[in-house]
Specification:
The chain has helices at 12-16, 19-30, 34-66, 76-125, 128-133, 136-149, 151-178, 180-187, 190-225, 228-236, 240-263, 266-291, 298-301, 304-345, 436-442, 466-472, 487-492, 500-509, 513-517, 536-550, 566-579, 615-621, 624-633; strands at 369-376, 413-420, 425-429, 451-456, 459-460, 473-476, 554-558, 584-588, 600-605, 608-613, 638-642, 645-648, 653-655. By secondary structure, it is of the alpha/beta class. The strands form three sheets. Strands 6-7-8-3-9-10 form a six-stranded mixed beta sheet, with helices on both faces. Strands 2-1-4-5 form a four-stranded antiparallel beta sheet, with helices on one face.
Length: 667
């Protein structure tokens, strides 16, 4: 079978070469809002046009109202109308600006919400292998920090570019109309400024990417170190100081990158501002040469009003031009963030539906499971362009291609064929690393087989829709996951429209209802992050209740009773017996006492199926199962082992060590 899609490492030059497609994709984000954007464009043009009239009104005030060229006195009537015009224009542009800001804010934030939603939805489609190879903090950083980093571009930048471009263009036209000679002086160094700006922009792109990669690392450190599991780990091994030091090192690097990014281009902008500051003096000098006839244009083309109007325009040109340069740099910087976001959006999920996928009918499903010559090895981890710092426990996996001559990954499963009849309880046993959990992950298509096929009721699982397959296969893992919320919310996750009666019925079947009622808040009790406020047995029974509420036809139990004490295992085992009733069940068993009554037991060793049969048949065969049974039960003298003792075949129970109970949430 073909392998899943793989990602390769991109160099900075290869990433930079993608500039045009990135700009096109940014434009596509704004396409749904083109109506509002058109209104913004109209507002910008009107506002810039009105603003450009002011210098001409100023020229008229000097040359036609106050200091008339024919030598007569001031024209107060004309002056009054000109003053009204100069007063109305700022009021009109201010009102237009308010409406324009509302439109741009609406468009930008809506586009950003679309981008964030699309990214989250795409990540939900990614295969399990992607998440096992990628830090949770790195994913969170792209979803939060990177999207937030492009907010300004989506909300303000497009409008700022349009507004300042129109303003600069209008001012340039007006300056040419007033005096083309003085215009040449003002714009003579613009090509040099543009070239310098492009060089600064390239450097800021590289810095922005490094800054975000380092921010991803800081988010990952935070997620690892400040989670409940991370805090417990650091306290148990007294590693709090090292975790603080690790965070401070990343924080110092972030500070240096932020300062470097902020200072990049400052000298350039200082040069531009200095040039514009001294330009009026140069204009006056050139005007003197024009009035004396040394420069073409003469005194008949340059009046006091023209000179005042031109210097007013030149002063007004400075700020829009500087803003245009700054925002252009911001766009170049933001392109690095957009590329990081699009890198995730461009990842093709390895587990996808075929166009003609079959919908599995849960009502008619019998639950027959078959492995046909299944071989599987885990795909190479998918990774993107290298991060600023690498995980301290891993080597970089940035480049997927395997070096020439390197060994192929080992097979997790090899030529496995097995058959589970509808309604049977099938157990899988074997030493650690034999491929037990891997085999169960192939049934709901957490991974796709490398060779062979996994079938449910004769259908290759790759031919089924993902939704219908997920609705028919339930799973209870060794470490059940509970999110931070109420017990009711955690149970209803399997069936959001479940009634209170259905939730209680599932809890009763899982032997957890009475325990829930003993809590002060009952079903509204907060479980805590990953269920840390509950004991292991309580979490396990809640997981069983949740899958019972889902009511799948096929149930997978991954060592659901391991590491439990005697009393808790009894409660969980009773719940599991109810859960497996009238449904096909595949149980990974660590404690062989829980699978004596299994309809069929499969023995896996080194990824191969070495034997199958019932409990008595496998004991008689003297193979893997018999060996494990002797190791665990002392050749029949021991009936069962628990975390707090053993039970012998003659009924005696011996405690090996005390097993303190976890504090109840009601305490």
């Amino acid at each position: 079978m073909p392998r899943g899609p793989q990602a390769t490492h991109l160099t900075e030059d290869e990433i930079a070469a993608r500039g045009e497609p990135v700009l096109g994709r940014i434009a596509s984000l704004l396409r749904p809002y083109r109506g509002k954007i058109a209104l913004v464009a109209v507002a910008v043009v009107v506002s810039a046009g009105l603003t450009s009239l002011v210098p001409f009104l100023t020229q008229a005030v000097f040359d036609k109202a106050l200091f008339r060229l024919d030598g007569s006195g001031p024209d107060l009537g004309l002056l009054g109308w000109l003053v009204v015009g100069m007063s109305v224009i700022p009021i009109a542009t201010a009102l237009i600006g308010i409406a324009q800001n509302w439109l741009t804010s609406t468009v930008g934030n809506s586009a950003m919400a679309d981008l964030r939603g699309d990214l989250f939805a795409h990540l939900q489609k990614m295969e399990l292998a992607f998440f096992t190879a990628t830090k949770t903090g790195a994913i969170q950083s792209r979803l939060a920090n990177d999207v937030a980093g492009v907010r300004t571009v989506l909300t303000d930048t497009a409008t700022t570019i349009l507004q300042n471009t129109v303003t600069v263009t209008a001012a340039f036209i007006a300056m040419v109309l007033l005096s083309w000679q003085l215009t040449i002086l003002t714009l003579v160094v613009m090509p040099l400024f543009v070239w310098i700006q492009l060089q600064v922009g390239k450097r800021r792109q590289r810095l922005a990417r490094r800054t975000q990669e380092n921010l991803s690392e800081m988010t990952a450190i935070t997620e690892e170190a400040l989670s409940v599991s991370g805090i417990l780990l650091s306290k148990v091994f007294n590693r709090a100081d090292s975790e603080v030091q690790r965070y401070r090192e990343a924080n110092r690097l972030q500070t240096r990158l932020q300062v470097e990014q902020a200072m990049t281009g400052r000298a350039f902008f200082a040069t531009v501002q200095t040039f514009f500051a001294i330009t009026p003096a140069l204009i006056y000098l050139v005007a003197g040469y024009m009035l004396t006839g040394r420069i073409p244009g003469g005194d008949d083309a340059l009046t006091a009003g023209t000179l005042v109007a031109f210097t007013t325009l030149q002063a007004r040109l400075q700020m829009p031009l500087l803003q245009l340069m700054r925002v252009t740099l911001d766009v170049q910087t933001s392109l690095a963030l957009f590329r990081r976001i699009f890198e995730y959006l461009d990842l093709e999920p390895a587990i996808t539906e075929r166009p003609d996928a079959v919908v599995l009918d849960a009502e008619r499903l019998r639950g027959e499971i078959e492995f046909r010559d299944v071989s599987f090895r885990y795909p190479s981890p998918r990774s993107l362009s290298g991060s600023a710092t690498k995980d301290r426990f891993e080597e970089s996996t940035a480049r997927i291609e395997r070096p020439e001559g390197a060994a192929e990954p080992t097979w997790a499963l090899r030529d496995v064929s097995l058959h589970v009849k509808p309604g049977q309880l099938a157990a899988i046993v074997g030493p650690s690393g034999s491929g037990k959990t891997t085999a169960t992950y192939l049934v709901p298509r957490f991974y796709d087989v490398t060779d062979g096929s996994v079938r449910i009721d004769g259908h290759d699982v790759r031919d089924l829709t993902l939704g219908s397959l997920a609705g028919c296969v339930g799973m209870v893992t060794q470490e059940p996951y509970l999110f931070h919320g109420t017990i009711r919310d955690n149970l209803a996750y399997a069936k959001p429209d479940a009634t209170a009666e259905e939730i209680v019925e599932a809890a009763r079947a899982a032997n957890i209802h009475e325990r829930i009622l003993s809590f002060d808040e009952g079903y509204e009790t907060i479980t805590g992050e990953r269920g840390y406020r509950l004991s292991g047995g309580e979490k396990q029974r809640l997981a069983i209740a949740r899958v019972l509420l889902m009511d799948p036809r096929v149930l997978i139990l991954d060592e659901a009773t391991s590491a439990l004490d005697t009393e808790t295992e009894r409660l969980v085992q009773e719940a599991l017996e109810r859960a497996t009733h009238n449904r096909t069940t595949i149980a990974i068993a660590h404690r062989l006492s829980t699978i004596h009554n299994a309809d069929v037991i499969f023995g896996l060793e080194d990824g191969k199926l070495v034997e199958s049969g019932t409990h008595s048949e496998l004991l008689a065969a003297g193979g893997l199962y018999a060996r494990l049974y002797v190791e665990q039960f002392g050749g029949g003298e021991i009936e069962a082992r628990f975390t707090d003792g053993v039970r012998f075949a003659d009924g005696r129970t011996v405690c090996e060590r005390p097993s303190p109970r976890r504090a109840d949430v009601s305490v």
